[in-house]
Structure formats: structure tokens, C-alpha cells
What we know:
303 residues; 27% strand; single chain
Amino acid sequence: MINPITGRKYVKTWQADTLxxxxxxxxxxxxxxLSEPIIHAHPLFKVLPDIDSLxxxxxxxxxxxxxxxxxxxxxxxxxxxxxxxxxxxxxxDKAYRVDGPALLDASVRRWVNKGCYHKEVFDVSxxxxxxxxxxxxxxxxxxxxxxQGHAISSNPFFRDIPVRANKGEALIIESKSLPRxxxxxxxxxxxxxxxxxxxxxSTYAWEDETIDPTATGKEGLLDRxxxxxxxxxxxxxxxxxLRPASKDRRPIIGWSPKSxxxxxxxxxxxxxxxxxxYFADMLLDAVINQKDILPEVNLMxxx
Length: 303
């Protein structure tokens, strides 16, 4: 899910005015190149949980910098849905769902067709560097970019990068009682997937680095869903994954302190679908054209 207004204070996500025009063009370009629908626009209905939240939202309405992201001038409500919304809510524009599996599958098919995809467990010990190139078995290149998620911290070129695994769990439910084209932000986010299926999430856990769903995670999600939505549904699946979270909640891109031939793209955290297009492009511009990297995301801030 891509959402420009986040948190309990309803603030614009960091760099939203720069990121959103870029990601909208980027995903449209990907869809055209991959011949696959990737990004889906949905209005996001954010439920106001209490009077303080109502006051905070009304303050945001008075700020012109928020006008292109906020639809309503008065609190709204979702009708015909058994949603807990005593204070109503408001609509957020420019929210999207990215179909991650479709994006990955279509990308792999394209890379395979172009003969530039190889699937194997990468063994960094087989990587050798000399003055002008990098070699990995039979491959030779000028640079290598590591995109390893939370596992980047085990890479010998990036051992000091403060990236940690932040586990998240989610449910896939089926319901005929929820809107088919609206994302609901409440105790949980409820995101339409089509065919009466919805993604419900998510949890946050710092101490568990396994990728297995847990009974505790499921129980917590069901409890929060019950406090949000009281209509009928059934659980189809229970998922878990690990987010690559950085120490300061900013992406980490740039060159390894050990080699100017080795770079990384890391630390996208919970906002990978909104952050990655812009900052991957920034890193490529640095690699190919020797452009500067924004100090706030440059790996060297931790040097």
C-alpha cells in the first residue's frame, strides 16, 4: 500500500511531494514495459478514532500543502458497511496498491527473455575486485549493487549498516460486506485485492526474525479487525515477512566504505513501494553519471 498521509498526526510522508510524481510515472512505465497491471489507485478512507484525531485532521485541512491529498471538508462515513466509525473519517487521495507478486513475476519473465537473469544462491566469497572491474565466476562488471533487504547487514561489504529485520504479519480474508475499491485505514488497514479478497495488516515485531506466521500475530490482527469491522468474513491465509528497517527510518544507498565499485540499496522499511523507485533511480544516477546522493539517504552518514 502507498499512502501519502501517515501516522496519528496525519502528516505527509517524508518527501511526498517529490516521491509521488516520480512513482506515478515510474509504475506507469513499468506497466507499459511489462504488459501487466501493477499499480491500482484506490481512495483511502481513514477512520477518525477520537476527538483529538478529528481536531488534528481539521488542522491539516487548513494547510494548503495538504490540499492535493485530502478530499473532504467535513467528516464522512462509509455507508452500508458495518464499520466502527463513531467520529466518521476522511478520504485521502493518491493512495495506491502495488501488486508485488505480479511485479516480480512479470519482471523475472522479462529478464529471462532478455537472457539477463540467473537464479542461484549468491556466494560473496566468489566475488573478486581488481582495479577496473568486478568478477563473479564467469561474470564481469564495473559495479555491483546489493539489494538484500535486512540481510545486507551480513554482507562483508556492509556489516556496519544499521539495518534490522522488522517482522510483519497480515491476513487475507474474503468478505462480501466490504467496499471493493476503497482502502480502509483503521485499527488495521483493509486493502481490496479483487474477487472479494482483502489484505488485512499489519503487525510490527523487532525480536522475531523468522518468516513464519505466529499464533500471537494472527490473534492480534483478528482482535484489531474486530474493533474495526463487524461484518462477515472468513480468513483465507496468514502471511509473514521481514521489512528491512533502518536506524533513522530513511533509505540507505551508496558505496561500501571498502570499495567504490560496490554499492547497496537498503533500508526501505515499511514504505518500500513509495521510496524504492525514486531512490533506486538516484543510486543508478550516482553509479552511471557520478551524481550526488542526497545526504539524508547516503550510506556515508553512518561512516
